[in-house]
Amino acid sequence: MNDPYLQVTWTDRETEARGYLVIDRLLGGASSGGLRMRSGCTLAEVADLARTMSLKEALNYRPSDRYVPYGGAKGGIDFDPRHPGARAVLTRYLSAMKPFIETCWATGEDLGVQQRTLDEAAAEASIESTVQAALPHVPDGRAAGLARLAAGFAAEVDGISLADLIGGYGVARATVAALEHRGDRVHGATAALQGFGTMGGAIARYLTEAGLRVVAVADQDGVVANPAGLAVEHLLAHRTRDGRIDRDRLKPYDKPIASNWLATPCDVLVTAAVPYAVNESNHHLITARYVVEGANISVTPAAERELFARGTLVIPDFVANSAGNAWWWWTLFGDIEPTAASAFRRVSTVMEDLVVSSLDGAADTSTTPRTTAAARAETSMALLNERPRG
């Protein structure tokens, strides 16, 4: 594996918080990847995420699209996003990274950072747009692209921002595609999730809509479970801004339990929170047939190998959760209309293609879906290196 193109470490002089930027590679002179903030974030984590972004970008390459994928990148700040000083730390980080944002790093929201807050902090740092590096490549001009992106963010589904739903919708469609392609039931299949914030909540909503039963959800306070299926919409209506479930307002059969969410008897486990959640110390708890990475780098390589050896397939992060990133670019470049109907239609089609091709490549039982999907992404990156950018 090649070293990243660029690694930057920043120290906030006021709080001593550390911040990082890793550009895994440049394609067409630019890179793409979100900015996260969490206590304990490390340079190694950000580098892993940047590499994943390179794969995620390339995997969504379609020669007929206006959008031509970029290289992967990621930003990270080791600081508690709930701390009163988090907003100021974010602004100072953006000020330090401004030269990269203006030239070669297009970024957006990620774990612990909401897009609205990111946009406000960017404005305070005199940054025109967090996707400024991508704007020179929009065929019909930056104004048209930004107008489409604004319309996409303004779109709502049942009063909820499309931007808050599309990533989770993609993970749910990836899950359904995997079940259908392998001949497993969808209606009545069971799922357990780690994380109930923006991503996890949307995943739970759309898995339920597809006919699965969400039987357990883990948040920062533990696990809430119901073998018959949780009242997902009720839980969503009574969660905090950071994705905690209100235990005082549970439905009668939705109960807090003491067990590890990984041990939940179910067909599908979905990660939607922290990195390295499934690792060498806990993978043995899993009995599910599928693990779907709704969160980036949430399954360690060693754990994935062990799971695969005993028949559990991991649908990798750069496949399963790629819809949120791709939606930004499809909208900005005009490959889809800035509407929910257009976004959902494109995501459904792309997720089925990516998941089916990954599973078909692993059909001989000796190759993981990750290996197959990564090979496809590497092929796309080779083609992208040869393609001139308009």
TrEMBL record:
Family: Belongs to the Glu/Leu/Phe/Val dehydrogenases family.
Pfam families membership: ELFV_dehydrog (PF00208), ELFV_dehydrog_N (PF02812)
Species of the source: Streptomyces hiroshimensis
Keyword hit for Oxidoreductase: yes
Name of protein: Glutamate dehydrogenase
Entry-linked InterPro entries: Aminoacid_DH-like_N_sf (IPR046346), Glu/Leu/Phe/Val/Trp_DH (IPR006095), Glu/Leu/Phe/Val/Trp_DH_C (IPR006096), Glu/Leu/Phe/Val/Trp_DH_dimer (IPR006097), Glu/Leu/Phe/Val_DH_AS (IPR033524), Glu_DH (IPR014362), NAD(P)-bd_dom_sf (IPR036291)
Ranges for domain Glutamate/phenylalanine/leucine/valine/L-tryptophan dehydrogenase C-terminal: 163-389
Alphabetic keyword roster: Oxidoreductase
Gene3D superfamilies the record matches: Leucine Dehydrogenase, chain A, domain 1, NAD(P)-binding Rossmann-like Domain
The organism's place on the tree of life at top rank: Bacteria
